[in-house]
Amino acid sequence: MHKAEQLLLNNRRAVVNDRVFWLLAWTAGAIGLLLPLSIIGYLLFHGFQVLSWSFISEVPRGYPLGVSGGILPAIQGSLAVTGLGLAVAFPAALASAIYLSEYAQSQRFVAVMRFFTECLAAIPAILFGVFGYAFLVVQFGFGISVLSGGLTLAMLMYPVILVGSYSAFNAVERPLKESALSLGVSRAYVIRRTLLPKALPGIIAATVLAAGHAVGSAAPVLFTASVVQTRSSPSLDSPVMTLPTHLYNLVSEAVSFEHAYGTAFVLIACLLFANSCAMMLRHRLRK
Amino acid sequence: MLQTAINLNSAAALHPAILTAASAPSAGILQTQQLNIHYGLEQRLFDINISIAERQVTAIMGPSGCGKSTLLKSLNRTLELTPGAEVTSGSVYFGELDIYQSDVDARAVRKVIGIIHQRPQPFPMSIEENVLFGVRFHQRLKRSQRQLLAERYLTMAGLWDEVKDRLHQSAHQLSGGQQQRLCLARTLANQPQIILMDEPCSSLDPASTERIEQLVQQLKNDYTIVIVTHNIAQSRRLADQALLMMEGRVIENAPAAQLFANPTTVAGQDFLQGRIG
Questions:
Q1: Would you say the ipTM is above 0.90?
Q2: B-contacting residues of A 105-134, CB under 8 Å?
Q3: Does the B2-272 domain belong in CATH 3.40.50.300?
Q4: Can you give the residue ranges of the ABC transporter domain (chain B) (predicted)?
């Protein structure tokens, strides 16, 4: 056989290499898919008996508290602290991101700010909890309350939303900004009418990520907002129950594992719901 | 009625000198004097002295990297949007006003001297909103005025018939040539006196290019046009006055017919005969 013809034959090593990579890629993909699915399946399987309308619409009952009844106050409490945290963190983080990507003149200042923000994002949640307790609960006298918990969660969410939004603004092509500014309009007008719509999908993704992280963390609210039991609906100056701390109590005090699984499932379902809403919103914005 | 409302808000209101500048009959409506430009430490333009005649098409030609876009952008203060780029000495006169003078509002300059970029950049909004993007910043528009204005400028840019049924759809669905005419429409909507064009056809197919060239021929009756191109045939078709640049300097500057017939420099002859560029 001529040399030229030999070149056309299958290269055994290349074929084997291809197979190996195909297998690795599929395994990695399958793990990413199976892990969340099996967690949800597991929680559903074990918490299935307690899941019902009354589980999410009634207060916890029984002794020790939580063996029967529902988790309504915990859902309300979680929504209250996360909502307050978001209301504080989102505008602050968005404004910081706009400043850093569009107004800051010194690249060194931006680099330093980014470094500190990323450090802030890497601080363990429990440290935010302790800091919130020392400063907000004790020093400022806010007490264990929705206000203290919400502000602590805001600190947790701020860097995540900031970093995500900053990247989203930076990803907008420079020629687009330049074209817009060439029409003799102000920077603020360009940001409001072209950059913000372009960056919005990225901003939403970062916000949902941050909020999901916040609603599921027990550590930041453990010392700042949560108690084992409340009956009244949440108000700024009173403590609340939250989903992750309720879950923690049910498990650590061995109150009821079924209710714990049920609570965990509700928590995950909330996150899935929030994520799906964000995905649909992003899809609509892209059109 | 509509016309007066718009004029009140034009650049003259932002700097009183612009009004006299625009009406002063001088050698050229736009002139540079010993203009030097640096990118960081590197000098890109050297002692540029040119004069742009009113209501004519001036073509700036030259090989890639010769500084023709830099020169063009310095004429309406959009160069400073590029990080690092800086006019280090010299002036650009619009009439008798130096646009780099400290009390001149760069935004007003950009409104009176519009620019079309190489790649069309439609904004993420409807076709109508794209046309009115600049106008809506510079003045309040009643709802009833919007479509009127959009129609006027889309017609001037030769795009109205193609988009009149989908004014409220996204501008991203237009073809490249249509997008470039949309960019022209939104620049025209700002009511400029001068239109700068930075290789406006370089990303377009021949048919779209021809369309843009026709528009340039029509627009020169009312506007002063400066067009950067590396396409010699295009400047032959369009230009009244032509400049040739090499390595940051203007080496030829003459009425187009004269320049194409008798380039005075060796580099100019080489460029026009396609030996360099």
A1: no
A2: none
A3: yes
A4: 30-272
